[in-house]
Amino acid sequence: MAALPTGSYPPATPYVAAPVVYGHSGVQFAGFWLRVVAYLIDGVIMGLGFMALFIPFAVMTGLTAALGSIHPGEDPRDVGALLGGTFFLGLVTIVSLAILGGWLYHAKMESSSWQATLGKKALNLRVTDMAGARVTFGRATGRHFAKLITGLIPLGVGFALAGLTERRQALHDMLAGCLVLRDG
Q1: Per-residue pLDDT averaged across 99-117, rounded?
Q2: Is residue 149 in a domain?
Q3: How many domains would you assign to the chain?
Q4: Exposed, middle or buried by CB within 10 Å (0-12, 13-18, 19+), for 176?
């Protein structure tokens, strides 16, 4: 039986991921307008998904028939009585599913091996941590909900930072410690 080598075991040098050198090897920061286009593509995809849930809901609950029976000039209290509490509960459920779906869509896709939503993937964009590595589901979740804070800043300044900062980070990227890179 061979003896173990002397000295520290395992080796004393820890594994450190090689940092991404931005501006080299075809990696660039994603600018504001590319991110806007990716956002619009994702909005269409999520809108279609929402409608795929809402239309069957409206038909199954009789909402379409109820809305068709409302006439101009009718007392709004009559409309509330017509639709009832079941509709309100169903609407809260649909909105909750839309919020949950939006969160899962962004967080799961951005923490996946794609590192991008479908809109970002179409434009060769990917979300990374500050070292250029894939983000965790937790970090992607933090980035998604940090967009609520970004959206609170008037005139979209929090989003516009993506076109003004050195690393093209919007406020939610800074809060979550993320970068959006463009490959190619």
Answers
A1: 93
A2: yes
A3: 1
A4: buried
- Which of 49, 80, 52 lies closest to 67, judged by CA? 80
Cα angle 61, 64, 65; round to 5: 90
pLDDT for residue 20: 52
| pLDDT per residue as tens digits for the range 136-166 | 999 999 999 999 999 899 998 999 888 898 8
Average pLDDT of the chain? Answer: 79
Decide if 5 is inside a domain.
no
Q: What is the pTM of this model?
A: 0.69
| Closest of 98, 124, 101 to residue 35, by C-alpha | 124
